[in-house]
Design a protein that fits this description.
The protein is built from four helices and six strands. It has about 170 residues and is of the alpha+beta class. Helix 1 runs antiparallel to helix 2. The protein is globular, with a radius of gyration of 15 Å.
C-alpha cells in the first residue's frame, strides 16, 4: 500500500553515487553496500513498491539520503533501512532533516506510526546511537554477537503522531 499524496521520484542519481556516499562514511561493510545498491535499484525500478527514498542535496550533489518502507504484516509499523549522510555534511542537521521528512511522509499514510531501526553496538557507532536517541528513538533491545563476535544488534523504536513523540 502506498501512502496517499504525491510520491516524489527521488533517488534519481546513479546508484553508484549513493553507494559511494555511504562507503565514504566508513560505517558500512562491503556486503552492506552491495545490498544498498540492490535496494536503490529496486526503488528506482518501482518507487514506493517496497521502499521509499528521500534525499537532501546541495551544490556538491547528494548530502544524504534515507530509505524506509512499511514493515510487512503490520498495520502501522515502518522500517528505516538506511540513513547515510556525506562525511562533510555530518553534524549539520542533514540526518535530522531526512528523518523529519520521512516521518511527515509516513504520517501522510495515517495518524500514527511506529518506526523501527537497528544498528551496530560497536563503539564506532556511538554517534549513530546518540543520533537515534536525540531524535526520540528508544532502545528496545540488544542481541549480542549478532553481526560478529563483539558486535551486537541494537533495536530502536519510535512512535510518531498525536500519541507519539512527534517529528524528529
Amino acid at each position: 500500500m502506498k501512502p496517499p499524496g504525491k510520491i516524489r521520484k527521488e533517488g534519481g542519481r546513479p546508484s553508484e553515487e549513493y553507494v559511494r556516499l555511504a562507503a565514504d562514511t566508513g560505517f558500512f561493510r562491503d556486503a552492506e553496500l552491495k545490498v544498498l545498491e540492490e535496494v536503490i535499484l529496486d526503488y528506482q525500478k518501482d518507487p514506493g513498491k517496497d521502499y521509499f527514498f528521500l534525499e537532501e542535496a546541495d551544490e556538491s550533489g547528494s548530502a544524504g539520503f534515507i530509505i524506509f518502507g512499511r514493515t510487512p504484516l503490520t498495520d502501522q509499523t515502518w522500517d528505516i533501512y538506511w540513513i547515510a549522510v556525506r562525511k562533510n555534511s555530518q553534524g549539520k542537521g542533514v540526518g535530522r532533516k531526512l528523518l523529519s521528512r520521512a516521518e511527515a511522509f509516513i504520517l501522510s499514510a495515517g495518524p500514527t506510526a511506529l518506526l523501527r531501526i537497528e544498528t551496530s553496538g560497536k563503539k564506532e557507532y556511538d554517534v549513530t546511537q546518540e543520533f537515534y536517541k536525540k531524535t526520540g528513538f528508544l532502545e528496545a533491545g540488544r542481541i549480542p554477537d549478532f553481526y560478529s563476535e563483539g558486535d551486537a544488534l541494537i533495536n530502536y523504536y519510535k512512535k510518531i503522531g498525536p500519541s507519539g513523540k512527534g517529528l524528529a
